[in-house]
Write a structure and sequence with these properties.
Elements: H1 6-32, H2 35-60, H3 68-95, H4 98-124, H5 131-141
Helix pairs in contact: 1-2, 1-4, 2-3, 3-4
Length: 142
Amino acid sequence: MRKVSYKRHLAKTITWRLVGTLDTILISWLITGNPFTGLKIGLAEMITKMVLYYLHERMWLSVDVASSQKRHLIKTVTWRVIGTLDTILLSWVISGNPLTGLKIGFAEVVTKMVLYYLHERAWYRINYGLDIRKRAKKWKRT
């Protein structure tokens, strides 16, 4: 198992949440027609999703999948299921309308999967918090 620091998972949590929150605010605003409802849903999600995302990252630390692309696709799907359920519930509670919750949740399925996959691929190339990868690159230079 490779050594991954908590700092890496916290950094990934924060960067993903920024991207995800902006997407949620925009989609919620477009569906409800109300920018304040979009902001309420986005801000509520910021809190719940950061906790859920961090736990998802920690869980995936113990999962061994040989191919990085296969791993990223599976992580994308499992995260999207968790994220969509959270979005539907929050949108329903904040808007007071279960249909609005479903519309917002399902609209995000496509946008969030694409954005999450790109986020995972970007972080795969970043060495921050990966001691093993840093050492391997250092050895290759000498």
